[in-house]
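User
Here is a favour to ask of a fellow structure person. I am asking you to supply a protein in sequence and structure-token form. Please set it down just below, with no commentary around it:

Assistant
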Amino acid sequence: QVQLVESGGGLVQTGGSLRLSCAASGRTFSTYYMGWFRQAPGKEREFLADISWSGGSTVYADSVKGRFIISRTNFKNTMYLQMNSLKPEDTAVYYCALRLVGQSEYAYWGPGTQVTVSS
């Protein structure tokens, strides 16, 4: 079993920045991908970014490309999401997730962390 825990959420003004962290623990896998998602009230969960085991391959949703940066430190089993130029529409609960190599579905999820951007 894998446990994921997000941290770093909070309240920030429009144009500000936040860095979210996702710590993984428990069963370890030789290689896995990790991703960030968010869900705003009344909306479906939205994919934001994905990163490979080595960190050499990243994918971003158009809504955050150029503003958010995904990264990871395997030594610490931690993934990050640097969020810049935040907008009120970025307000949501942010989740990290893990998927195994060769699988498209994310099998493990964190409980989420709230990000609120004030106008």
